């Protein structure tokens, strides 16, 4: 699928690190022009790519969605792909989540993608070319998860937004889907897995594939949804979690069964 996105203008938020960086790189490798929006500047390996345009911005700020779409227009025209990847999260139960923390979750994980979807859809409808929007949800938005009282509800709401927009704008040729990653390997998750037996048991031993995912695996799912390979796919929430969100009764470890 090296040319799957040839010549398409794609906005990727949170593109300077982690999953967003993997998406930006894969989209560039697939022929897209990528507008990367992040609070942090991109690494040099990305910034120097001839088809990458960086926009350093706080996506939760007023007017940020319109500014990102304007940056895309300056790069050649209305967006044809939008990946709302930027988000925040930490591990807190509700009794440790004050109003300020809740508002930050809502601002970054829901209001910012909402504003960017609105700006992108307005531009896509005006251009008449259709498009693909991919919202980065979470496996925690599909199931109950301990210590995620601020994070998980915002991801569940993002899934609701995805379904609504898919219903409302399909007749304009705009497809809207969500990707729901499970545990993805990073320096932070490796540290938590090494030092927290409960976290490992919940996230690895309760995962049918028995391992964390890689950022590149999430990026490939996004590329599929952005491409013509998914031309008849909209309103879908695609878990990329090794089966974690569907595993309710895992088999016993060897030697422990009755």
From TrEMBL:
Keywords: Oxidoreductase. The keyword Oxidoreductase applies. GO terms for molecular function: oxidoreductase activity, acting on the CH-OH group of donors, NAD or NADP as acceptor. Gene3D superfamilies: NAD(P)-binding Rossmann-like Domain. The keyword Oxidoreductase applies. InterPro entries: NAD(P)-bd_dom_sf, SDR_fam. PANTHER family: 3-OXOACYL-[ACYL-CARRIER-PROTEIN] REDUCTASE, SHORT-CHAIN DEHYDROGENASES/REDUCTASES FAMILY MEMBER. Belongs to the short-chain dehydrogenases/reductases (SDR) family. This is 3-oxoacyl-[acyl-carrier protein] reductase.
